[in-house]
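Archive transcription. Copying these from loose printouts into the bound notebook so they stop getting lost. Printout 1 of 2:
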Amino acid sequence: MTINSGLKGNWNDQKSKLKKKFPALTDKDLFFEIGRKNEMLANLQVKLDKTKEELQQIIEAL
């Protein structure tokens, strides 16, 4: 499973769960724009200091 396939379902629900788990995340960090998903995920990796694999596991666990 790729990190992109972990972003499914209701993004607002997933975004809310991510903000609870990582209070430092802002709406701007989690702004989902079609065609820019990979850019958003890369920014999350940097902000959370996580590898691509770690971020994938976090998203899949939501």
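Printout 2 of 2:
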Amino acid sequence: MRILYLLFPFFLLLLQGAAGSVSVCRRRGGVCVFGGCRYPTTAIGRCSRLHYCCKR
């Protein structure tokens, strides 16, 4: 149970790093997707290391 107290700040740091990129992606008209963009969408940038900004 104590491990949850240690993991919680770690997840907050991950979310904080990606928050700025998400707003930039949405301003471009895109959506952040884990892994990669699927067929009808194309990558227009990155939200984080594993998330791509995709747009139709």
